[in-house]
């Protein structure tokens, strides 16, 4: 029996609850440029939605279109792939809802049990929607753990799903080349283990790579301004979107259901965009308060603040905050920063918590000061940071180095040139400030 058929009347009614909230959350999730496109599409189809120039000259969105290539976004790609699957309307709605819950790296970190209440959907329907989402490209999308991400990628590479799951759960054994144990537990010949090991080396630790769906220009929706007395203010970028309104008409005078539906769509979009702006402004003010040293200084240090801490301080659900941060940015000092730039998991440092941003800054200093003939390996950088009081693992050092697009010590040695006449040395007494 299809899952749709198992829904009782009460469950079906829950799917239609609060269209305004659903529309607001969908609008909040869209990156700035994608929302501008959605506004233009709706305005072209809906005579009740009025669009006026913001009155500030060329908009930030117009500039972005002139300087970036038009590509299909990840959200658009997932929506297209889900629409191509033979899903019932309810399963499709669940899959599309889960797209909005994805982190920027493609992981789904909200437990399905929590999403059941938030979405107003039964657990079985969400599981069906998740299965549909995980059938999409890129392989691993919608994974909830690293093991599940690897499992989905291995299955895409041709492994039977149960074998892919067993391999993903034994990733440490593959890394340590425990062939005898793997042969016994998986029942595979050495040649097959070697083939799977090669597959593992080509997999990604996240469904979405850092450079996927990135464009050369991120349109800021907020500006952080500093005054002569050290005061900080946050104002919206009014040119990011046109001014929206609803055509002056009485809904009860419209003579067809189609016209009333268009009127309601226009009203929902206007209210949704306004709610989005208010939410982003609240988040921007929180960032300005917690990161005042960043905005008043030289933009070289960030206080460690987690998303969970921010959500609690703003009385906001974690998934709502995640939607608000995705693809959004602010401008400060003529530079554009993604909102996610100001949130991170803290590391233990010499004077308490330290942000990954500050650790990466210190890593840049160490690498800039290294000898051209003997660049610092990740293990050496890790040891130096530990001497300075930072609790960090070597794999984290390697991850940060890759995020900063800095080659390995071997790659740097090949790229270093002899023009560095007097290379500086690393001083053990240098600290993370």
UniProtKB/TrEMBL annotation:
Residue ranges of every copy of the RNA polymerase sigma factor 54 DNA-binding domain listed in the record: 260-414
Keywords: DNA-binding, DNA-directed RNA polymerase, Nucleotidyltransferase, Sigma factor, Transcription, Transcription regulation, Transferase
Pfam families: Sigma54_AID, Sigma54_CBD, Sigma54_DBD
PROSITE patterns per the UniProt record, alphabetical: SIGMA54_2 (PS00718), SIGMA54_3 (PS50044)
Segments for region (Disordered): 411-433
Annotated ranges, domain RNA polymerase sigma factor 54 core-binding: 67-246
Top-level taxon in the UniProt lineage: Bacteria
Family (UniProt): Belongs to the sigma-54 factor family.
Function: Sigma factors are initiation factors that promote the attachment of RNA polymerase to specific initiation sites and are then released.
UniProt-recorded name of the protein: RNA polymerase sigma-54 factor
Organism expressing this protein natively: Defluviimonas salinarum
Upper lineage: Bacteria, Pseudomonadati, Pseudomonadota, Alphaproteobacteria, Rhodobacterales
